[in-house]
Amino acid sequence: MKVLLLMVGKTAEPWLQQGVKQYFDRLNHYLPFEAKILPDIKNAGKMKAEVLKQLEGELILKNVENSDQLVLLDEGGKIFSSRGFSEYMEKQMLGGARRLIFVIGGAWGFPEEVYQRANGKISLSRMTFSHQMVRLIFAEQLYRAMTILKNEPYHHD
Ligand SMILES: C[S@@+](CC[C@H](N)C(=O)[O-])C[C@H]1O[C@@H](n2cnc3c(N)ncnc32)[C@H](O)[C@@H]1O
């Protein structure tokens, strides 16, 4: 199974880019992993939030095939412990899907169409993080899940 992480918009902060890259590189040792940044919508600053969210949603769905498992990173989603998330990943890997896509939304979240298409929603906390911060937090959790599945001494509980 391949894992694709879709992210809406570029990261402006070099310190975040650096941290995210570190975990993305590590992830490649555990599973076929690709991270894709969806390009910023032109003139986004002049648009109403609803319009921008809709356009970002269309862009997300263009990158999704019928056979994909689509999982949204969303404050309202299911909360796991790190070990629970590793079990979730194991189930996904055994589940037979060719591609598992995680998506981190833009500053305004996801439009209804994306929620309708999604196979699941995962929350990292009931608190809301910036869409930039979530990249780093999720990349580390995905890496942690992989080390748990491999019985490596990274996670301690
Ligand atoms: C700033 S949040 C969007 C906030 C809010 N949903 C809205 O509509 O304004 C941007 C993105 O970061 C991700 N995100 C933020 N906090 C999260 C959390 N606690 N768990 C999972 N994803 C989160 C989600 O993908 C969300 O779409």
UniProtKB/TrEMBL annotation:
EC category: transferase
Compartment list: Cytoplasm
UniProtKB keywords: Cytoplasm, Methyltransferase, rRNA processing, S-adenosyl-L-methionine, Transferase
Chief localization: cytoplasm
E.C. designation(s): 2.1.1.177
Catalyzed reaction equations: pseudouridine(1915) in 23S rRNA + S-adenosyl-L-methionine = N(3)-methylpseudouridine(1915) in 23S rRNA + S-adenosyl-L-homocysteine + H(+)
Residues that, per the record, bind S-adenosyl-L-methionine: 73, 105, 124-129
InterPro entries attached to this UniProt entry: Alpha/beta_knot_MTases, RlmH-like, tRNA_m1G_MTases_N
Coiled coil: none
GO molecular function terms listed in the Swiss-Prot or TrEMBL record: rRNA (pseudouridine-N3-)-methyltransferase activity
One Pfam match: SPOUT_MTase
GO cellular component: cytoplasm
Record-stated family: Belongs to the RNA methyltransferase RlmH family.
Reported function: Specifically methylates the pseudouridine at position 1915 (m3Psi1915) in 23S rRNA.
Subunit description: Homodimer.
Name of this protein: Ribosomal RNA large subunit methyltransferase H
Organism from which the protein derives: Marinilabilia salmonicolor
Lineage, top ranks: Bacteria, Pseudomonadati, Bacteroidota, Bacteroidia, Marinilabiliales
